[in-house]
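ok so I'm stuck.
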Amino acid sequence: MANRSERRQGGEGIPGQQVLPGSIALVHDGTTLVAVAGPGVAVCLWNESSKVACLAHFAEAATYETARATARFGNVALPTAIRMVRDVEPSGEIEAQIFGGASQVGQNLSRGDENVAMARRVLTAKGVKIVSEDVGGTKGRKIVFQASTGHVAVVKVHHLRADDWNP
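replied:
not stuck anymore, here's the structure
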């Protein structure tokens, strides 16, 4: 059994490329993508025909200020991630899986819900099919996205701890 400090390392001990909040990763070589989401949302995009995979991990639902328009916000991250996948494979269907959006004690309890709603809204507007979700509740999620197959493993954690989210 792992000792206490090993268990608290967030996604750091999981092999693969870690995608932190406010980041987008695109791969076509089968690299495993890893994220740890609390109230933020990780959206896994996959195109089966080209095996292109993208993980967009955002912390806040939206910004409407051009100077703040980064991947930290869902209304910026998701259109960018979808465009990145379509740049590689313009004709293929993209499927999406949504993870995260947990309520964190002591935080804005609607933040997770707002993030999930933004993910659904953008994906639907862009014609991306949502094939699965594991969202809401009070447990954070460790997400392991196998880019070569489109499979995702999710491990829920009982307590949202600062070192789980930012190893």
